[in-house]
Each structure stands twice: as structure tokens, then as C-alpha cells.
Design brief:
- The protein has 296 residues and is of the alpha/beta class.
- The protein is built from nine helices and eleven strands.
- An eleven-stranded mixed β-sheet has the order 1-2-3-5-4-6-7-8-11-10-9, sandwiched between helices.
- Strand 10 and strand 11 form a beta hairpin.
- The longest helix is centred in the N-terminal third of the chain and has 20 residues.
- It is globular, with a radius of gyration of 19 Å.
Length: 296
């Protein structure tokens, strides 16, 4: 009887710890075959899967915060670097930026390069890969392990939701640009989190399910409004403020004076499935993302 009580108490303790901290993946497999192919571009393999990554360093890399950047479906690290130029603003503000290329799923040989965000039933171990790559970069360059972030676009943004859910011990905050939370990740969501989250949604982005325009009615994935309420509530954030930005865009913030993590939602007026820019939207998406990281 005494042994039975001990087992029951142990199971309860495990449940409570999982509920409080969330499911946090650790890298059990390390990177292999790391090769430098030019001044800042590298190749590697993880669990037999090939990847490449581009490292953009600030003037002082030791102790610098790190941002892992994840491209959209069928794109590459180089494409995301070229289209967003995130590293230019990030490096100026003291952040290191590392663009990473995904892979073709072992279960979908005809597909494009992308990330196992949880939409498909099976896929590559991308959470574990990104955690392993992040740990390698932290050790190699001396980046600040307490200020490590992830940001993704489209399929990479779906992955940002999954990383925040499953790798909260590695990333202190994540950003989804034009992304949604896949149904599978939503159904297995943590009761509590300790990770900041920012969502950037185009008003007319039909990839992201929304309540205000009815697009959630024909989607399996949750409405982005429900997702943002979840990120805020699971982090214990109750203070809500909303400010109007350029051209009618709105930025909603969930905060708490007793919590380090924050949750932001930028709704970009008249925008579609894009990374916001000053020229097109009147908003420098890179700067707003870095402002969010600064706040976390």
C-alpha cells in the first residue's frame, strides 16, 4: 500500500511539472558533418538529414542574443535572408541572426523544403534538430543562452508555434509571421508556459484562420484570436493594451508586472500573406520583432 501511494504521488508530481513548464525537448542527437562552405554559410546533418545555415554576427558575438530564422515552405535560408534582410537590423542592435534551411520530409519525397510543424501525421525530427543547432551555436559563439529566440515565416511560422510549445527551455520567446498553430499542436497544448510569443497577421491573410472575417469556419486549425488568448493566459498575462500603428494596423500586448514573458499580436491593415515592410505597410517588421525580443 505504501509503495502504491509513492507511485501515485510520483505520477501526480510528473503531471504537475509538465503542466507548469510544458513539454520541453532536449537534443539527444548532435549535429554531424559540419562544414563551412564560405565566410558565413555552413552545412550539417542531423539524424541523416542534410541542412544548411547562414550565420550573421554582430560586432560583439560573445554574450549576444541569438535569433533562429525559419523560412516558408519550398524556400531556403538564403531566400529568407535576401527577402527579409532581418540580420541588418538585428546585427546593428547587437543580435546574432542565423537563417536555417529545412528539409524534404522522409515521408513525402516529392515535397519541398520545409519544417515539420505538426500539420502532417509524420515528419522529420525538426524540433530536436533546431534545439541541437541552437545548442551548437551557443557553445561555438558564446551566445547568451538566456536570450535565445526563434522567428519564422509561413511554414516556418507554424514551426515557431511548435517550438514555443515544445522547446520553451531553449527559446525564451518566438515570433510567427503569417503563421497559424496547427491543430495537432493545439490539441496537445500545455496548460502553462513560460515563453513569450508574438504573432504578426495580415488582415486579409487567408492562410491564418480568423474569427473576425469568418475564415475559421472552414479551417481545422484554431482561430488566431483563440491562439493569442491561449498564449497570454498560459503565461499568466492579464493586462491588455492596444495601440494603433501606421495605416490603421493595431498592436495588442498582453503583459504582467510580475512576469518576464510578454505576448503581442500585430494585425497588419490591408495586408495579405507577407512579412511587413516600411515601404508596403508603413511598418518595419524587423524592428517591431526586435522590440518584442527586447521586451522579453
Amino acid at each position: 500500500m505504501r509503495k502504491l501511494k509513492i507511485i501515485i504521488f510520483s505520477l501526480i508530481a510528473v503531471f504537475l511539472l509538465t503542466g507548469c513548464k510544458g513539454k520541453n525537448v532536449s537534443a539527444k542527437i548532435t549535429l554531424e558533418n559540419i562544414n563551412q562552405i564560405n565566410s558565413n554559410t555552413f552545412t550539417c546533418s542531423f539524424d541523416g538529414i542534410e541542412h544548411d545555415f547562414i550565420v550573421e554576427l554582430p560586432a560583439q558575438s560573445a554574450g549576444a542574443p541569438l535569433v533562429i530564422l525559419l523560412h516558408g515552405y519550398s524556400n531556403t535560408a538564403d531566400h529568407m535572408r535576401f527577402t527579409t534582410e532581418f540580420h541588418k537590423t538585428a546585427n546593428t542592435r547587437g543580435y546574432a541572426a542565423v537563417y536555417v534551411t529545412g528539409s524534404i520530409s522522409k515521408y513525402e519525397k516529392s515535397g519541398g523544403l520545409g519544417w515539420n510543424s505538426g500539420i502532417a501525421a509524420d515528419g522529420n525530427p525538426d524540433v530536436e534538430f533546431i534545439v541541437a543547432l541552437t545548442e551548437y551555436l551557443q557553445n561555438e559563439y558564446g551566445f547568451d543562452k538566456e536570450r535565445t529566440f526563434a522567428a519564422g515565416f509561413s511554414n516556418g511560422a507554424f514551426m515557431a508555434h511548435r517550438l514555443a510549445m515544445e522547446a520553451g527551455d531553449t527559446f525564451c520567446a518566438a515570433v510567427s509571421v503569417a503563421g497559424k498553430m496547427p491543430e495537432k499542436i493545439w490539441k496537445n497544448r500545455n496548460r502553462k508556459n513560460h515563453v513569450g510569443f508574438m504573432q504578426i497577421t495580415g488582415e486579409f491573410d487567408d492562410v491564418v484562420p480568423k474569427r473576425f472575417d469568418g475564415t475559421v469556419s472552414h479551417a481545422r486549425d484554431p482561430a488566431i484570436e483563440d491562439v493569442m488568448d491561449y498564449w497570454a493566459a498560459s503565461n499568466g498575462l492579464k493586462n491588455i493594451t492596444t495601440e494603433t500603428l501606421a495605416r490603421g494596423s493595431t498592436l495588442t500586448k498582453w503583459t504582467s508586472p510580475k512576469k518576464e514573458s510578454q505576448v503581442w499580436h500585430l494585425l497588419v491593415k490591408d495586408s495579405h500573406h507577407f512579412w511587413p515592410t516600411e515601404r508596403i505597410n508603413g511598418i518595419d517588421g524587423n524592428s517591431v520583432i526586435l522590440d518584442f525580443f527586447d521586451a522579453n
